[in-house]
């Protein structure tokens, strides 16, 4: 809803009654943050959580958000970023977001998947609850979202998070929504694919594809640009509005 909101003419509306803005459920694109602040003067306070955890990471009220960061760990939870062996990774390195339960199980963390011991044990083992989401943590303790474990694209030995590319593409004024996913490739293993919904009145064509590809090359590392670009009328989403990248 926020992505669609910023593409409208917000100057036509009286937004003065809004005093605080927060969002969760899907990573916040910096372009949305910037446009919303320009229109209202308010900073969107992003948070991260799951049905299993409630709010685990957040820009809590009274703190200073970093644009694009999910915030810091909720004091209620012992949140960490770990590698495939469950070892903590240093600042700046991507790993899976987990919650330590070896010393104590925090109030608010789910007990189990109902009548599904196998799934419970897959997510909760070795003193850790595994969220299945990846991120990196900076020196100040802020967490930066990368993507679901299954969403990370592995191309020519590089690990590419879809969210970073989506955020860059969202800076283009004619892009309403964007979902980035992997496409199998015989040489590179996988390549980046961008599925894009254009704003009303924008005509899709090959020149537009090239412009998008070049924009990503110029604003990220060249190897991250989408070699495949498709235009769609809409993107597949969950019941709560999250883009389902695995269906792209």
What distinguishing features does this structure have?
Rossmann fold; 2 domains; four-stranded mixed sheet
Written description of the protein model:
Helices cover 18% and strands 30% of the residues. It has 248 residues and is of the alpha+beta class. The strands form four sheets. Strands 5, 6, 7, 8 and 9 form a five-stranded antiparallel β-sheet that branches. The longest helix has 14 residues, at 206-219. The radius of gyration is 19 Å and the shape is globular. It starts with a helix and ends in a 17-residue tail after the last strand. The relative contact order is 0.11.
Short structural description:
About 20% of the residues lie in helices and about 30% in strands.
Number of strands: 14
Computed CA radius of gyration, to the nearest angstrom: 19 Å
The largest sheet, given as strand count, sense and whether it forms a barrel, is: 5 strands, antiparallel
* CATH-derived architecture of the largest domain: 3-Layer(aba) Sandwich
Please give the CATH class of the largest domain: Alpha Beta
What is the element layout, followed by pairings?
Layout: H1 2-5, E1 22-23, H2 30-40, E2 45-50, E3 54-58, E4 72-73, E5 79-82, E6 95-100, H3 117-123, E7 124-125, E8 128-137, E9 143-148, E10 153-155, E11 158-160, H4 162-169, E12 175-185, E13 189-198, H5 206-219, E14 228-231
Parallel strand pairs: 1-2, 13-14
Antiparallel strand pairs: 2-3, 3-4, 5-6, 6-8, 7-8, 8-9, 10-11, 12-13
């Amino acid at each position: 809803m926020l992505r669609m909101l910023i593409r409208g003419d917000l100057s036509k509306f009286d937004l003065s009654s809004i005093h605080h803005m927060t969002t969760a459920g899907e990573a916040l694109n910096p372009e949305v943050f910037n446009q919303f602040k320009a229109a209202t003067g308010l900073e969107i306070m992003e948070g991260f959580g799951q049905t299993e955890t409630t709010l685990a990471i957040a820009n809590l009220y009274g703190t200073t958000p970093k644009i694009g960061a999910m915030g810091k760990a909720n004091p209620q939870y012992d949140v960490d970023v770990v590698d495939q062996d469950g070892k903590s990774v240093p600042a700046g390195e991507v790993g899976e977001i987990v919650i330590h339960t070896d010393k104590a199980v925090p109030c608010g963390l789910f007990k189990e998947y109902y009548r599904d011991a196998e799934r419970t044990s897959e997510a909760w083992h070795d003193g850790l609850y595994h969220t299945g989401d990846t991120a990196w943590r900076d020196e100040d303790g802020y967490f930066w979202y990368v993507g679901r474990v299954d969403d990370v694209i592995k191309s020519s030995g590089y690990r590419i998070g879809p969210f970073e590319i989506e955020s860059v593409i969202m800076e283009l004024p004619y892009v309403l929504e964007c979902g980035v996913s992997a496409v199998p490739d015989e040489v590179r293993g996988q390549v980046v694919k961008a599925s894009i919904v254009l704003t009303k009145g924008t005509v899709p064509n090959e020149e537009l594809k090239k412009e998008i590809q070049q924009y990503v090359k110029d604003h990220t590392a060249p190897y991250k640009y989408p070699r495949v670009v498709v235009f769609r009328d809409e993107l597949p989403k969950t019941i709560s509005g999250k883009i389902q990248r695995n269906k792209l």
